[in-house]
Amino acid sequence: MKNCMKCIVIAIGLAVGVGAASGQSLNEDLKLRASDGTDRDLFGNSVAIDNGIVAVGAFMGRVGGLTTGAAYLFDAATGKELFKLRAQDRANNDRFGWGIAIEDDIVAVGAAFNDDHDSDSGSVHLFDATTGLQRFKLTASDAYGTQKFGYSIAIDNGIVAVGTAPSNGLNGSTGAAYLFDATTGEELFKLTPSDGAIHGRFGFSIAIDNGIVAVGSMYDDERAGSIYLFDVTTGKEIKKLIASDRMSYDHLGRSVAIDDGIVVAGASGADLDELRVGAAYIFDASTGMELFKLTAGDGLRDDAFGSSVAIQNGRVVVGEHMGDEAGVNSGAAYLFDATTGEQLAKLTPSDGVSLERFGSTIGFDDGVIVVGENRLDGSERHLGSAYLFDVGCRVDMNNDFALNFYDVSAFFGLFLAGDLAVDFDGDGDLNFGDVSIFIADFSKGCPFVN
Question: Looking at residue 1, what is its pLDDT?
Answer without folding.
Answer: 46
